[in-house]
Structures are given as structure tokens and as C-alpha cells.
Amino acid sequence: MSGAAYAIGDLARQTRTKVETIRWYERDGIMPTPARTEGGHRVYTRTHLERLSFIRHARELGFPLDSVRALLALADDPERPCAEVDAIASEHLSAVRDRITRLHALEAELVRMLDRCGRGQVAECRVIEVLADQTHGHCLSQDHSASRL
User: What is the CB-side half-sphere exposure of residue 62 using CA atoms within 13 A?
Assistant: First the structure.
């Protein structure tokens, strides 16, 4: 094997990824299986480091694993047009914007509950009253879809 070689702990430290997560990525197939020493220890290469860094960054940006898999497959074929990559990123951006909208609705509901709280005794607490209301009559929607995360 030529080039840099990394033990799993080194790879974990350099990418700020837990060892068990690296093993899981290998079992899942998102990370290629590394070579092993005669003693059975995994030996990672620069390619593993770069791939894991890509995965880690994509996950930090909130891409779901299925999207990360698709992006990795596209990255492995650099001659393809990037329209598919753009589509995946656009879909993720749409999901992020949708989540922001829902978080704003959740924030508004929580502010409304707290604004109506008299700050007296728990028996008269508006927050408790709203949370205990099984009709959800005080919520933004009956099925909580506006506040579901």
C-alpha cells in the first residue's frame, strides 16, 4: 500500500467522527472496506479520509444518508453533468426552508403560550392548560403538522 495509512482512531480524530460511526458506515457500504494488517487491524488511506470528510461535511449540512449516498455515487463519476447534484441540493434546500417555516410556527405557538401565562400557580398555568388540551384547540393545526419537526 502506498501513501498515508491511518488507524481507525487516527481517522476518527482527523474527521471528528466516532469510531463506531466509521464502522457503521463501512457495514452500510457508504465507506469502502479498508485493508487489514496481519493482526486484523483496519488500515485506512487518504481516499478513506477524504470520503469520510465528505460524508461528515454533508451530514453536518443536514443531508440525509440517502442523499449522501447519491452524492458520493455522482462524485465517483466526475464526467457526469452536475444537474443531478444540483437537484439533490435543491431538494435539500427546499426541505431546510420548510423546516425553518415550521420552526417559526413552533416559535410563534410557544411565544403565544408563554405570553398568555399569568405566572401564577401551576393550577392556573396557561402552558400546562394548552399542553393538556387533548382537542388541540389552541394549536396552529389539529394534526400539529405546522409544528412537527
Answer: 11
User: From CA 131, how far away is CA 44, in angstroms rounded?
Assistant: 51
Question: Does residue 45 contact residue 6 with C-beta atoms inside 8 Å?
Answer: yes
Rg (CA), the chain: 23
CA–CA separation, 59 vs 55, rounded Å?
A: 6
C-alpha cell at 90: 435543491
Long-range contacts at 89-97 (CB < 8 A, ≥ 24 apart): 91/67, 92/61, 92/62, 92/63, 92/64, 92/67, 96/62
Give tens-digit pLDDT for 72-127. Answer: 999 999 999 999 999 999 999 999 999 999 999 889 888 888 887 777 777 777 77
Q: Is 138 exposed, middle or buried (0-12, 13-18, 19+ CB in 10 A)?
A: middle
In 10 A of CB 1, how many CB atoms? 8
How confident is the model over 3-14, as pLDDT tens digits?
789 999 999 999
pTM listed for this prediction: 0.75
Which one-letter DSSP state was computed for residue 44? B
